[in-house]
Amino acid sequence: MNEAVPLRPSAPGALLVHHERGQREVFCGLAGIVWLHRKIQDAFFLVVGSRTCAHLLQSAAGVMIFAEPRFATAILEERDLAGIADINDELDGVVSRLLERRPDIKLLFLVGSCPSEVIKIDLVRAAYRLNRAHAPRARVVSYSGSGIETTFTEGEDACLAALAPDLPAEPATAAPSLLVVGALADVVEDQFAATFREIGIDARFLPARRADAMPAVGPNTKFILAQPFLAETARALELRGARRISAAYPLGCEGTTLWLKAAADAFDVPAARFDAAVAPGRARAEKSLARYKAQLSGKTIFFFPDSQLEIPLARFLARELDMQPIDVSTPYLHQQLLAEELALLPTETRLNEGSDVDRQLDRCRAARPDLTVCGLGLANPLESEGLATKWAIELLFTPIQGYDQAGDLAELFTRPLTRRSRLEV
What we know:
By secondary structure, the chain is of the alpha/beta class. The protein folds into three domains: 2-25 and 283-423, Rossmann fold (3-Layer(aba) Sandwich), CATH 3.40.50.1980; 29-150, Nitrogenase molybdenum iron protein domain (Rossmann fold, 3-Layer(aba) Sandwich); 177-276, Nitrogenase molybdenum iron protein domain (Rossmann fold, 3-Layer(aba) Sandwich). It is built from 17 helices and 15 strands. The chain has helices spanning 33-39, 51-61, 78-81, 87-101, 114-118, 123-134, 154-163, 186-199, 231-239, 252-266, 271-296, 310-321, 339-344, 357-367, 376-384, 394-397, 406-423, and strands spanning 2-6, 16-21, 43-49, 71-75, 107-112, 139-144, 177-181, 203-206, 221-225, 243-244, 300-303, 324-330, 350-355, 371-374, 389-391. Strands 1-2-13-12-11-14-15 form a seven-stranded mixed beta sheet, sandwiched between helices. A four-stranded parallel beta sheet has the order 4-3-5-6, sandwiched between helices. Strands 8-7-9-10 form a four-stranded parallel beta sheet, with helices on both faces. Belongs to the BchN/ChlN family. This is Light-independent protochlorophyllide reductase subunit N.
């Protein structure tokens, strides 16, 4: 099914949203473990899945055989699938041995996969049972990282949404507080925390770096999303009484300023104090972006649906680097979470929700963009056809948010073009 409807029917020149349904090319939610296990330093992610799941994680994370990562796969064997073994007893034994060998684990995630969901393993009940056995030494939480009808960034959303119901309750008499939601690299989190202090706001972050430091939440909590793909997490926090601050996302100088300003306005920070606090960061970002603008200005870019970062990235590239996003596809379009971003997207951009990879490949080949952002499975075929590509997943593994990363973000888009120019004879 393919159809186009106006994004804002009453607005003149409104963007059309083309809804596409067809084959997809994208990683599953298990990929989120690669950055989440680095963030929560005493957590362990136990995937209940197949050898394919294990190979995916090993490949995505580049784990060496002598390393001791904080994720693993409890592999479902033929005897499990045939019902010869009791899967619950098997899982209990794996968890008990794991926690005995790794006393540093304080938070254990049971992560569902395609195989575990197909054979209907109830990991929610398993987590409840294991919690009773191992609390308070270790807490057990479950979520789904299955690739059935999901994209790889939804793994983070499912993980944080699973944490939300059990976050500590903020006292009813507490002063209004700010919660920044979304996994950020530690260096980015530290930069944002320092900037918020300059503005006059004491910010907390979800997820925290340690299991026993997860932030409290309640009716006096105002939260702002650092990532656009956290729809379920936002709903879970709102059920706890927290209120979302609507904002653009902190990609590039403009996006970071708008994001910080939305939080400052929610806490009635005087404009003079805000401007003074962000001025040094804005100046650094503008200077770093100027280095790349000449190389990217006027270049066309095509986004395949992959990470749900496509719309904020297109806004950043169009408004700050003068690129032309000719076709922007995103797996899911959460209009409320992206309202501020959509208002800044060039109206001539073709905007697509969903995936029909064959149609998108046809449009990409016809357009011959200067740069194509896509998944690993499409990159090599498109490169062989003479198109420069950027791996979408790299934008999740790399710190790209905030003023001090604005230049690094721009450089990610210049690298494929620089490489291609060097290879040309």
